[in-house]
Design goal:
The protein is α/β, with parallel strands linked by helices and about 350 residues long. It folds into 2 domains: about 5-210, ANL, N-terminal domain (Rossmann fold, 3-Layer(aba) Sandwich), CATH 3.40.50.12780; about 255-355, ANL, C-terminal domain (GMP Synthetase, Chain A, domain 3, 2-Layer Sandwich), CATH 3.30.300.30. The protein is built from 8 helices and 20 strands. The protein has a 9-stranded mixed beta sheet with strand order 7-8-9-10-11-15-14-13-12. A 4-stranded mixed beta sheet has the order 2-1-6-5, covered by helices on one side. It has a 3-stranded mixed beta sheet with strand order 18-19-20, sandwiched between helices. Helix 1 runs antiparallel to helix 2 (about 30-45) and helix 3 packs across helix 4 (about 100-110). The longest helix has 15 residues, at about 70-80. The chain starts with 7 loop residues before the first strand and ends with a helix.
């Protein structure tokens, strides 16, 4: 498999090759299509590698170097899992600045998919051209919050953040098949998927073809991918079921040890995701008695007494004893990555520095 053999792309029904792709993108008023043109310029250059920007959601954003042929191998694994066929319509509504957008283009190059391109925003399904059916659409959970137009899509792949219990409940009403992917820039997009709705819905992530999993002494996931040179050691705590499936628990660097009780913020947040409209997260703050105390951070002005009391009661009725936050704290603005993911540690440090 050689990237030099993959220079034909179908964009909005236009069969383009080589420099035609770049000219089409440059002539567009769409900023994301112009960025697609920049990507294709890099792709068709003689260099065998590309620089990718990580999102910074779990650490400092950085540049990593990957082989173009590795990206094709990743595209092949996704094509095998979903059974892509030449000419199928795939939606490009993710920013071309990150791996998800770039890999969607590589999948289209590999499987000869027709990319229906719309500008990335919070409701891309509304922008799908009339009488157009989409076979495959990668979206962030935020982009699927409005599920009204999902009937024109056969398969949706969610990624980039967790799926809230509220959204997962709404997804159960859809005829569209919805999956949630596990992956990162370093793995060139997803390496495992779980079904979110339908008869086969599950909390278990299943590996893509030839991907294998193990864990280290911390219980964190180790990923072995045949087209990557080294194993990827993550900070994700999992319940490993076998070498090709796991249940995700949360980030090791987010775990709160409160009086000897280990608490997983992501699991707690999932339980209470329907209780608040405002962005929030839970984290540990230093405590002289417990070591760490569980606190809830809300991006908002402080609630009035009635609203705050209602929230406290709802938390008590929803969470286990040790999962109930000791404090509810309000922050005007969370720190976020360029892709708008909440930076927990940065927000907590800024809060402590402001005291």
């Amino acid at each position: 498999m050689n990237f030099k053999d993959y220079t034909k792309l179908i964009l909005n029904g236009n069969h383009l090759s080589g420099d035609e792709i770049i000219a089409y993108c440059n002539a567009s008023k769409s900023n994301n299509l112009k960025l697609l043109g920049d990507f294709m310029t890099e792709w068709m250059s003689p260099e065998t590698t590309l620089n990718l920007q990580t999102s910074g959601s779990t650490g400092t954003p950085k540049i990593i170097v990957v082989e173009k042929n590795q990206m094709l191998q990743s595209a092949k694994a996704t094509a095998q899992f979903f059974g892509f066929e030449e000419g199928q319509n795939a939606l490009l509504c993710l920013p071309m600045t990150y791996i998800a957008g770039k890999m969607m283009v590589v999948r289209a190059l590999f499987s000869k998919l027709n990319l229906i391109c719309v500008e990335p925003d919070e409701a891309p399904l509304k922008k799908i051209p009339e009488n157009t059916f989409i076979d495959f659409a990668p979206l962030t959970p935020m982009q699927l919050n409005d599920t009204a137009n999902s009937s024109v899509v056969k398969t949706i792949l969610l990624g980039g953040s967790a799926v809230s219990s509220k959204l997962e409940s709404a997804i159960q009403q859809l005829n569209t098949e919805v999956y949630h992917g596990y992956g990162m820039t370093e793995t060139l997009s997803h390496v495992a998927l779980r079904k979110v709705n339908g008869e086969s819905k599950s909390e278990i992530y299943q590996a893509l073809p030839d991907v294998k999993f193990s864990t280290d002494e911390r219980g964190c996931l180790i990923i072995s991918v045949p087209y990557l040179d080294e194993k990827i050691i993550t900070n994700d705590i999992v319940v490993l079921l076998n070498d090709h499936s796991f249940i995700w628990k949360g980030r090791a660097d987010n775990i709160i040890n409160s009086g000897g009780i280990k608490l997983f913020p992501e699991s707690i947040e999932l339980k209470i995701s329907t209780l608040l409209e405002e962005p929030f997260f839970v984290a540990g703050l230093p405590d002289s008695l417990l070591g760490e105390k569980l606190c809830m951070f809300i991006e908002a002005q402080k609630f009035d007494t009635e609203k705050l009391e209602l929230l406290r009661n709802n938390l008590k009725n929803t969470l286990d004893k040790y999962e109930i936050p000791k404090e509810i704290l309000f922050v005007n603005k969370f720190q976020r990555t360029l892709s708008n993911k909440i930076q927990r540690q940065g927000t907590v440090i800024a809060f402590l520095n402001s005291l």
